[in-house]
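ok trying again, last paste got cut off:
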Amino acid sequence: MTRAAWIRLVLFLVALGVTGFLWSRALKSKTESKTVSYSELLIAIDKDTVSEVLVESERLVAKLKAPTAEGNAQSLVASRLPNVDERELVTRLLAKGISLSGHIEQNSLWPAVLSSIFPLVMLFFLFRAMGGMMGGGQGARPMSFGKSQAKIFDRSADNPTTFEDVAGVEESKNELIEVVNYLKDPEKYRAVGARVPKGVLLVGPPGTGKTLLARAVAGESKVPFFSMSGSEFVEMFVGVGASRVRDLFTQAKERAPCIVFIDELDAVGKTRAGGGVFAANEEREQTLNQLLVEMDGFDASVGIVIMAATNRPEVLDKALLRAGRFDRQVLVDRPDVRGREAILRVHAKRLTMSGVDLKQVAQRTPGMVGADLANVVNEAALACARRDGKTVEQRDFEEAVDRIQLGLRKDGRVMNEQERRRVAWHESGHALVALSVKHADPVHRVTIIPRSIGALGATLQLPTEDRYLMTEEELKDALVVLLGGRTAEEIVFTDVSTGASNDLERASELARQMVCRFGMSALGAQTFGRPGGSQYLGGAVSFEERNFSEATAQAIDEQVHRLIEDAHQTAKTVLNQRRAVLDVIANALLEKETLERGALEALVRGS
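nice, full thing came through this time. structure:
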């Protein structure tokens, strides 16, 4: 349990104890005595129900011989009347034989002292608890809000991160080697008057290894590494973020040479809004302004290098990116097939493997980044453990990739025979068309085992290499493969099902891109519409600005329809010509549920 949690627990128990004490005192006072008027007290004395009377400075307390019928009170309390001669009362008491006593009250100061101190104690503990929750590890020091929350990784670390731990981003590493050399030997650069970049901004999609690269630079340079997230600067109190920036740079100057790394820079470095009193977040702007001032204020020769990472560079304030601040911007992009293989080898070092072809795994994972590939390796190890294996095999990696790309196997899902047959011929249509057209990627596996993302089957193609350009013929063949499943259903069952919805969506989008973006239609070499939103680093398009007429929109729709219809007719021709092979593949799928590449090609050759 953390210190703040202990403080909150003690605070709760103290409050509970005091509340219980006061409540019990109130209940006890309520049950032991009953407040009455002076006349009612005289009547009780006349009825001989009182055994003893205590005279105090402001009241009379009469102890009863027996508790009252209502309320079970044991005494009556009446206020003394001002300027009234009470000798008659004393005579009446003596005549009844009632004991009479009195004393001078001396009020204790403790209740007043406790009632004054207790709220202050409560506020003190509450403030300490708030300090523990908001101080980010500064314990119970409320005034430490403005202290830097940076994590410091010292040069004395036993296992520092180095460039050997980073794979798949060779170009980015080469860009950062100069920073490492400067931190190792700054005199070499000072001798020729060179100045190392003050700031290095690592830009790339999430999971590509930007933070790992920054730590590797520190590990290679053997200098202290200050790491802090951009969101940790900003708090609910105005001025806290700016104070933390100042404290961070003060600590860095004391331990120079060093590296200061700010992760998710966009959290604090967004473009400042212009105009209007309420147009901007004042705290974030103050923090950003202080960061700009600090980056301008320190001398690069002291050996401080500022590194930052973001996957949204388009939202950063222009003042951050000018020369003299973040001088160098390094793109940490998605790895290619060789980079993915290298990343897999780094993560697979801890595994005991046998018969694993990591190159094939890399080919099956296009678009995946370092974090995704680390997850693939871990899922493969888990798959091995699930089957009680001793070593991780190729089938474990295949299952890991399928699990990530397609979802969990639904072995318990029962489809009726008619649905199984339809799915079998649908996937056979995709596979056979892919094997028949010229420019399709090779088929790696065909399966009719349902998966958790809603797919009742899948045809997996394995690109032989990364592609950065595609020709018009290659895109048209991709359309034919996408429509192969639905066309097979149409030929075999004379009608179609809802199973091709995703295929149709992808085909329609691809055909529209061919017309509107790539100029691959009868409309000629021009584009239609301007995409809006963030497209940097493959970001999603949030909207599209239309810059064409209704007549052009109709022509675009006609061209999209023509591309899809031509692909449909091509798929129908291929499947009608090879109908016997289609049936052989489908029947084999019904029997085995999954066909690997070798078995599939053997069936095609044998038919």
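cool. Residues 132-146, 275-280 have pLDDT under 50 and may be disordered. The chain is about 50% helix and 10% strand.
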